[in-house]
Amino acid sequence: MSGRLSTWFNRQGWRQIVIATPYLWLTLFFFLPFVIVLAISFAKTAPTSPPLQYRPEWPYVFLESYHRLFSDTLYVRAFFTSIYNAAIATILCLLIGYPMALGLTRVSRSWRNLLLILVILPFWTSFLLRVYAWMGMLGSNSWFNRGLSSVWNAIVPADWAVNSIPMMNSNFAVVLVMVYSYLPFVILPLYANLERLDQTLNEAAMDLGSKPREVFRDITLPLSLPGIIAGGLLVFIPASGELVIPTLLGNAYDPMIGRVISDEFSSARDWPMAAAVAVALLALLVVPMMLYTHFESRAQAAREKS
Amino acid sequence: MKHAAPVRSLEAGSQSAFVRIEGVTKTFAGIKAVDNVSIDIAKGELFALLGGSGCGKTTLLRMLAGFEVPTSGRIIIDGKDMTGVPPYERPVNMMFQSYALFPHMTVEKNVAYGLKHEKMTDAERKDRVRQMLDLVQLSDLGHRKPHQLSGGQRQRVALARSLAKHPKVLLLDEPLGALDKKLREHTQFEIANIQYKTGITFIVVTHDQEEAMTLASRIAVMDRGVVRQIGTATDVYEYPNCSFVAGFIGSINMFDGEVTGIEDGSLRAIVPALGTEVVGNAPSGMAFGQKVKVAVRPEKILISREKPSGEVNALEGTVDDLGYFGKDSLYRIRIDTGTILQVNNVNSRRAKENERIAQWEDRVWLSFEPSSVILLRE
User: Per-residue pLDDT tens for A27-55?
Assistant: First the structure.
């Protein structure tokens, strides 16, 4: 039966269709839009519809947008803020997520399933709703902020006392909520990686004289590197282009790049500038992306060999 | 073939014990995996823990390594009580069944791993690694990663790594379990050879009786957490002390009987399954009327066309089945009570198929010496 099915499958050219589908999808919905964005970035804003125009003579393009990318410190600063926030969030996610993932592999089966569900549970409520919840908590009049303030006031000298702790509209809030939102993306690949590790390797290292701390350093940590990289990139890449969190929780003077793109498109109606920033961001993210695929394929090859 | 150190029979509690397991019990969720086991092992011995799966041999080995803590009892190695000593501080190394080689390290790094905790110079460390790789004949493959090695090579790396620290005791968990038959025989010899060269006390866990018998100077046969017998290969094969050991090691014809007479060191027992009396050498402490197990190994039974000259232990039967294995043949003889006896016949004479001693459906006589009969209390 399965033999006949596979013959039919191959004869009808289904195999080619199945293989071609994702490529077709990527071409239509990723490559083509990117080409359009790239094209727009070489235009100049104009009071027309769409609000852009090209140079009427050779070389038909304007490079103003790219020039402004480097000359106006807004953009460089926005890039820096984005990378900085994303990097801090990634490191914090790894520091918090690694022990959680490791813990998941060390508990009994039934506990493990329960804890895994708890890790995924936040996805069942709207992302936006969760960010709004954080806004409510961090705001100066919230019970959370007042509680924290009173704890602060109780332990510091009287002249350091505050009415509320300024947490909203800061990079601190942005990083905090990014860590909160992206934590599962670090836990899940790390768990998948750590769970596959052979526990007898730990016993072997211990048998050869290594204390538990040394076993972790020599065996578990190096063998979980693919998981660390996968989890780190799954946080870093979306975090550096994040729009919602910095818009709702960040401060307007230190925007992240996602917010800059959004503002250029909608408020400033400067499509070419927005497109140029988007292209630059993509270029910036392609590097870690390529690193990721490189490590993934290397790990894959190692797994297949062993 | 056997290079094992001189065999010393140790009485429990004797002073020369190097590894002493004293009344060790291990309970998992109320079930006794190891039940009050006491074993003394001499320095330089190659000792085997033999038993089927779930008999507690691996649990016992893991307690020696320190991965499991005995529920009660204690383990003493070279005069030091190991209670509360973590695995990384024990003078013991283990070769794991799965080898547990570190996949991200080269062969050299694997072997050197345990040495970084030793007080020695880099040159000494390098020297030791080279010695170990020479010992297992892998000097050329030091820069390979484990996944680039064959199963047999990985096994040797595991052995080299566990020997590198010169442990006082080496624990081997099913060391040949993952190898194919040809490689097994070769490696078996190699392990015995390395044990002889290094003089380290080896404790091998195995479910394979042939492996235990060829490798070990002494064997502890385990069953459901209990040690049934400790002795040399000859002891456990020829002189088993209970029906479990008799049945577990090799094949055997074993029947229920009852003692009908004891005189001048010889014992008669009526065996209903054979429809006759069997005569054997009387073990001590047997009494008239006692229920006994009467057992004879297949190769101890002679097969003949004519009625044997002896008066005792002779039976007549028909060839039910036969199998030819080259060096010997296995006959299944149905005697007149309907019981089937297994008989091994060494093919000491070169013969064609139609020239062999008996064919299917032939009437034959079976006989065995009284000294070959194993008599066991129920």
Answer: 999 899 999 999 999 988 888 878 887 88
Total count of domains within chain A: 1
- Cβ distance of A208 and B148 shorter than 8 Å: no
Question: In chain A, which residues have their Cβ closer than 8 Å to the Cβ of B114?
Answer: 208-209
Q: Which residues of A touch B88 (CB under 8 A)?
A: 206-211
CATH number of B251-377: 2.40.50.140
pLDDT of A83 > 60? The answer is yes
Identify whether the C-beta of residue B175 lies closer than 8 Å to the C-beta of residue B191.
Answer: yes
CATH superfamily of B17-247: P-loop containing nucleotide triphosphate hydrolases (3.40.50.300)
d(CA A283, CA A289): 10
Q: What is the CATH number of the domain that holds A125?
A: 1.10.3720.10
pLDDT digits (tens, 9 = 90+) for B221-262: 999 999 999 999 999 999 999 999 999 998 999 999 999 999
The better pLDDT of the pair B104, A167 is held by B104
Q: Are B298 and B251 in contact (CB under 8 A)?
A: yes
Phi first, then psi: give them for residue A105, nearest 5 degrees. -80, -15
For the segment B12-59, what is each residue's pLDDT rounded down to a tens digit?
A: 444 578 999 999 999 999 999 999 999 999 999 999 999 998 899 999
Helix locations, A139-270, DSSP H = 143-155, 171-196, 199-207, 212-215, 221-223, 225-240, 244-249, 257-266
Which domain range does residue A80 map to? 72-305
Strands (E), A1-99: 44-45, 52-53
Q: Would A27 be classed as within a structural domain?
A: no
Q: Which of B92, B100, B104 is nearest residue A204 as measured by Cβ atoms?
A: B100
Residue A210 lies inside a defined structural domain of this protein: yes
Q: In B, which residues are within 8 Å of A218 by CB distance?
A: 102, 113
Q: A228 vs chain B: nearest CA distance in angstroms?
A: 16
Q: Complex ipTM above 0.85?
A: no
CB contact under 8 A, A208 and B117: yes
Strands B169-173, B201-206: pairing is parallel
Tell me which residue of A72, A134, A104 sits closest to A227, measured CA to CA: A104
Q: With CB atoms and an 8 Å threshold, state whether B93 touches A208.
A: yes
Q: How far is A291 from chain B (nearest CA, A)?
A: 20
Token pair 């975090």 in the structure block, residue: A239
Please, are residues B220 and B50 in contact by the beta-carbon 8 Å criterion? Answer: yes
Interfacial A residues in 207-226 facing B (CB < 8 Å): 207-211, 218-219, 222-223
Residue A3 lies in a domain: no
pLDDT digits (tens, 9 = 90+) for A241-300: 888 898 898 888 888 888 889 888 888 888 999 999 999 988 888 876 787 778 778 777
Residue A5 falls within a domain, yes or no?
no
Contact B165 A198 (CB under 8 A): no
